[in-house]
Design a protein that fits this description.
The chain is of the alpha+beta class. The protein contains four helices and six strands.
Length: 204
Amino acid sequence: MIKSFHTNTVMLALLTILTGCSWFGKDEPEYLASREAESLKIPEGMDSPTGGRPVIIDVPEMRMPSGDELEPMPPKVVSTAGQHDTTTYMAWSPEGVYLKVEDTTDGFAGKLRGVIESSGMNLLEEDETGRYKFQYSHVPAKKKGFFRKIKFWRDGPVNHSGIYQTELRKEGEDTRVYLLYGDGSSCETSTAEHVLGIFMDQLG
């Protein structure tokens, strides 16, 4: 009885192995053996069948993130603390960080020129819409200290020097000030925060 049980068990195991080999080895997917059929012939006097129309999904083009926007960390300035107590603060949008000013676009365009010049930046181009191109020379602050000196393998301070331009956008009766590179491309978040922060300090 026991011998018969062992024999049946071994036979069942062999059958399972052989079946598995046929599943994964010799058998081919059904579509490999399929053949293309002839076109459907419609009898005279009858209409051809109409298939469903394809659905076209149109997705508007979005700006791809770049630079430090690819990092999983949230931006430093989701909104500036105490924004309800000031007329100027920094905030975040899908287009990046911007400076929010409680003033009309037309009214602030003229003020922005004075802010740029009073910040020690070299104004290169301007127009009445508030698009100012300027050159900024960043002088990083030097940090001293024992631990700072021994960490010699770390990178030096970030230098945000370069040519930039502003872009003003209406938000109701207020204005959003975005910072772009000189060629019109989007600035990295850290650079925009730095330069717009200087403007915010000048505006008080």
